[in-house]
């Protein structure tokens, strides 16, 4: 049970931007990746679909040509990845969602969820139309239990031991997707991107979780800024190419 304490396995390097120990990264200017989930009162998305859509949104931004090389977002993405990797999910509806959609970013749509991801911004420099959005209120439910994950495709396994709001869990799923992306070869990245970033997010059974956290797959340890204790293992990124 619980979380392994070693950082010698792939995906959890000694200078992990998700860890809790002081690092040179902490001396760099800090940035955050904003994600906004559309949550209308009359038709909120299913929780699992929202988590999966947020994870795909992170991957879509990381692979977008504007985030690479000399792209218009590339400097912001590099600065963000050179510091602690922070993601914050806010919610919007109606006019708030339309204003968020007018800002530079990418909207990713799931079965019932819509998530817009924006290029990283300074921790204290959010655009006004995003800063005014609420972080709380992203408690979502699944109308029906999710079907079993297809293990031939990537699965982001959530901890059965850590309770999180939907917004927090969406950010953690994004962390897991990002760790998998970093660990993949260029060929495997291209294949995942060309397939549309298929993935599933599921909560692991306690017995599976104990195995996953010691399997050598990328593990997210939360820095403890919000909701949960520092060092908590929250997600294991189980991509077939990393097994």
TrEMBL record:
This is peptidyl-tRNA hydrolase. Its EC number is 3.1.1.29. It comes from Streptomyces phyllanthi. It is an enzyme of class 3 (hydrolase). It catalyses: an N-acyl-L-alpha-aminoacyl-tRNA + H2O = an N-acyl-L-amino acid + a tRNA + H(+). SUPFAM superfamilies: Peptidyl-tRNA hydrolase II. Keywords: Hydrolase. InterPro entries: Pep_tRNA_hydro_II_dom_sf, PTH2. It comes from the Bacteria. Gene3D superfamilies: Bit1 (3.40.1490.10). One of its GO terms (molecular function) is peptidyl-tRNA hydrolase activity. Residues 1-25 are annotated as: Disordered. Pfam families: PTH2 (PF01981).
């Amino acid at each position: 049970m619980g979380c392994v304490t070693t950082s010698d396995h792939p995906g959890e390097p000694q200078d992990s931007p998700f860890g809790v120990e002081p690092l040179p990264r902490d001396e760099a200017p800090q940035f955050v990746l904003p994600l906004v989930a559309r949550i209308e009162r009359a038709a909120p998305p299913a929780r699992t679909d929202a988590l999966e859509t947020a994870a795909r949104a992170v991957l879509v931004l990381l692979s977008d040509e504007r985030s690479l090389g000399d792209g218009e977002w590339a400097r912001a993405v590099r600065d963000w990845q050179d510091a602690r990797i922070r993601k914050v999910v806010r919610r919007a509806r109606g006019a708030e969602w339309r204003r968020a959609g007018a800002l530079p970013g990418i909207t990713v749509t799931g079965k019932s969820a819509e998530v817009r991801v924006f290029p990283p911004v300074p921790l204290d420099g959010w655009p006004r139309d995003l800063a005014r959005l609420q972080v709380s209120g992203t408690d979502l439910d699944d109308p029906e239990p999710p079907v079993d994950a297809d293990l031939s495709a990537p699965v982001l396994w959530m901890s059965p031991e850590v309770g999180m709001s939907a917004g927090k869990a969406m950010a953690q799923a994004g962390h897991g997707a990002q760790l998998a992306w970093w660990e993949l070869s260029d060929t495997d990245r291209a294949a995942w991107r060309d397939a549309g970033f298929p993935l599933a997010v599921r909560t692991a059974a306690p017995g599976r979780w104990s195995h996953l956290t010691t399997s050598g797959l990328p593990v997210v340890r939360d820095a403890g800024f919000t909701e949960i204790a520092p060092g908590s293992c929250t997600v294991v990124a189980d991509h077939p190419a990393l097994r």
